[in-house]
Amino acid sequence: GETGLVWVPDIELYNSEEPISATLAETHAIIRPDGYVQWSRPGTLQVLCKFQGLVAFPADVLACDLEFGAWTLSGERQDIRLREV
Fold first, then answer.
1. DSSP codes joined into one string, 1-67
2. Is the pTM of this model over 0.70?
3. Which residues of the chain are modeled with pLDDT < 70?
4. CB proximity list for 35: less than 8 A, separation 6 or greater
């Protein structure tokens, strides 16, 4: 898709099996007159998780953190927020 007119965030899921660019569909951004921009990309992320202490298998409660970040810009320069669903 055309990304030359809208800045696209440089964000990656560090503990992913594949890069985000390979797993999320290309979509258009929604841009409102007040400057609000929403860019939602459907897809599936496959995360690599490290589980420890599986002492009550299969009844253990497991959690896996998603480690998002940018390769070139710091979090101070990008204000990216996950939407609550």
1. ---SSS-----EETTBSS-HHHHB---PPEE-TTS-EE----B---B--------STTS--------
2. no
3. 1-4, 75
4. none
